[in-house]
Each structure stands twice: as structure tokens, then as C-alpha cells.
Write a structure and sequence with these properties.
5 strands; about 50% helix; 7 helices; Rossmann fold; about 190 residues
């Protein structure tokens, strides 16, 4: 058990500076965009996609209209909508294509990434969208890949989960949501 506690301490020590390095201004802008939009569309590939499912559920509990890109019931995106993409590298071709399609439909964009100068971040920034950067350390032996002591970019995943949790809480506060409001929207077909 001692090794477990030591490892946990190492992991927490890796996550804290990543979250502390996120721009408070960008977070505030993201919360404003989330609160002002008609509908939020969430996208991500692989583990980022799974994390967007978690984020989407929490945003729905906070009172937002949320759709996961790729679900059979996802409607078309348009003006007054926000496409939020999580892509660590910011170069995943399918995510870049989604951003381009959303822009053609006059939707707004947001991206959560660790690559501030990626194609996706540039596209979002040029469109006036929100770019949230998680400053994870990169692996010097594998260009563009997350470093740290955890396997396969897990540090980015953990930081995404915690940051989107914080953003959801901020959205709920901005919309004056109570625990009862969240509970009322919780699934009852379980």
C-alpha cells in the first residue's frame, strides 16, 4: 500500500501544475460562451471523446442543451451553437474537419488542447473562438506526445476531466443552479 500512496502523490504532483497553468481568462471566456450559446456540441476522438461524454452529461445537469457529435440523435449545428472539441494534439484530421464544417454553418468554436500552436487551435483562434491550453509536459523522445510518468497521455486525460468539472461548476453558478436543479435532470431510466 505504501507504493500506492507514493504513486498517487506523484500523479497529483503532475496534475496540479497543469491545472494551475491554465489561463483564468480563457476559462472565464469559455464559461461565458457556454452560458450564452443555444446548444453545445461536443467532440473528441478516442479517450478525449469519452471525456466529452462526461462533460456533456455534467453540462446537461447544469441546464445546457448538449449534443455529442456522432450520436444518432445529434441535430445539425448552426448559428448560436458552439462546437467544443477536445484534442490534445490539435491535429486529429476528423476534429479539424468538424471545426471547418461548424464554421461553414456559422457556429462558434472552442478547443481544449495541449498544443497552443496546432492547426485546430489556430483555426479556432482565427474564428474568434476560445482556446483552452492545458500545459502538460511533452515527451522529448516522442515529438508532440505527452510526457510525465503516466502511460499514453493519461496526464492530459486527468487534467481534461478536472478542468471540465470546474468549468461545469462555474456554468452552474452563473446560471444559479442548485443541487435540486442538477438532481432533477439526473437520469431516471437506470
Amino acid at each position: 500500500m505504501n507504493d500506492y500512496m507514493n504513486r498517487l502523490s506523484q500523479i497529483l504532483d503532475e496534475v496540479k501544475p497543469v491545472l494551475a497553468g491554465v489561463s483564468a481568462e480563457a476559462c472565464n471566456t469559455a464559461v461565458e460562451k457556454l452560458c450564452a450559446t443555444k446548444r453545445v456540441f461536443l467532440a473528441g476522438a478516442g479517450r478525449s471523446g469519452l471525456l466529452m461524454q462526461c462533460f456533456g452529461m455534467r453540462l446537461m445537469h447544469a441546464g445546457l442543451m448538449v449534443h455529442l457529435v456522432g450520436d444518432a440523435t445529434t441535430p445539425s449545428i448552426g448559428a448560436d451553437d458552439l462546437l467544443w472539441i477536445t484534442s490534445g494534439s490539435g491535429t486529429t484530421a476528423t476534429m479539424v474537419a468538424l471545426a471547418e464544417k461548424a464554421l461553414k454553418a456559422d457556429a462558434s468554436l472552442a478547443v481544449l488542447t495541449y498544443t497552443e500552436d496546432s492547426l485546430l487551435a489556430k483555426l479556432v483562434r482565427e474564428s474568434g473562438g476560445v482556446v483552452l491550453v492545458l500545459p502538460v509536459p511533452l515527451d522529448s523522445t516522442r515529438p508532440g506526445k505527452v510526457g510525465g510518468t503516466q502511460i499514453l497521455g493519461t496526464l492530459f486525460d486527468e487534467a481534461v476531466f478536472l478542468l471540465t468539472t470546474l468549468l461545469t461548476e462555474a456554468v452552474g453558478q452563473a446560471k444559479n443552479q442548485t443541487e435540486s436543479d442538477y438532481a432533477r435532470r439526473h437520469a431516471n431510466l437506470e
